Amino acid sequence: MTQNPTSTDPADLPEAITRYLTGRADKNVSAAASAFAPHATVTDDGHTYEGAEAITRWLGQTDTEYSYTTTLTGAERDAPDRYTVHQHLEGNFPGGMVDLHCRFVLTRGLISELRIAP
């Protein structure tokens, strides 16, 4: 059964998502990485990263490759274990600005899947 997304106050997002978002904003790789399940996957910019080591490398790479600011513009609860977070990024990456949709799947309170796309 498909559920309709429900607008969610960002303050009410699950702890793992908040930890990831805060870690990214603070450029704290270990804090952001701790929000993921050991065998999680991340898909970003056409690449998929599987497992804790690959995700930690991806976090470190993206935090050092570009300088950017992030603004949370909205969030929805898509299902009991699925959330979409909307962010606006501005920085020195190609294009300079982008609106992203971060789709999270949680398993046992940790992020098991993250898909990032415009």
TrEMBL record:
It comes from the Bacteria. This is DUF4440 domain-containing protein. It comes from Streptomyces carminius.
